[in-house]
Amino acid sequence: MVRAPPTAHTIAAQLEEDIVLGRLQPRERLLEQDLADRFDTHRAAVRQALFDLDVKGLIERVPNRGAQVRDLSPEDVRQIYAVREELESMAARIIPLPVSASDIKRLEAIQRAHSQAVAAGDLRAVFYSNLQFHRALFSLCGNPYLIESIERLAQRAYGIRSWSNAIPEYLKRVRQDHLDMLDALQRGRRADLVRLCRRHLAPSRDVYIRVYQQRLGSGVRRRQASGTRHRGLGANRRA
Q1: Tens-digit pLDDT profile for residues 18-69
Q2: What is the fold, at CATH topology level, of the domain defined by 1-71?
Q3: What number does CATH give the domain 74-212?
Q4: What is the DSSP code string of 180-206?
Q5: What is the pTM assigned to this prediction?
Q6: d(C-alpha 78, C-alpha 83), whole Å
Q7: Domain segments of the chain as ranges
């Protein structure tokens, strides 16, 4: 039986995972024909997948170069995370307390999977279980527009996370933060929950900015000279 070619959604999901896990690096080029060959499909599906990733803020179109993984400067990251802190703190402030026993059980089940992934060093499972935990947590606020805003801005930070997720101590802190959030929910301690949600974001932001500045200096985007390829963060990391 002939296997149907992957859809644009499937291609976009795989490329998104590659960005999240650091397989694709900032400024790494995404050539349509190379991707069509990789996924054994036609360029139209690849083009749609790249469009979808561009909308999410994970890639960007560069004149005369085509698509590449989006490069976020330290200032970009500071601004994104400043807004994320406010949105996620707002969600924490309006979650109705006490939280139902069924919602607590659902969050505990997700966190068990996350803790197991951290212990096993399974970064793919760490990412998806972490994503699931925060979606479940912020869904409790009951405001669909706030939930959507949190989700969209979190997506823009996907490429940032691969740097901090490679640090075992960071993953252990994330795991403990989740457990503390659960405890705050169970005890009805809203101030603790808000504080934890705000604090939780800082390490991934700080790791990315520190590494970026070590690699590229000031954090001002350095555009390549005409006709010369800039190797960027990805090439430095692989060196």
Answers
A1: 999 999 998 999 999 999 999 999 999 999 999 999 999 999 988 888 899 9
A2: Arc Repressor Mutant, subunit A (1.10.10)
A3: 1.20.120.530
A4: HHHHHHHHT-HHHHHHHHHHHTHHHHH
A5: 0.85
A6: 9
A7: 1-71, 74-212
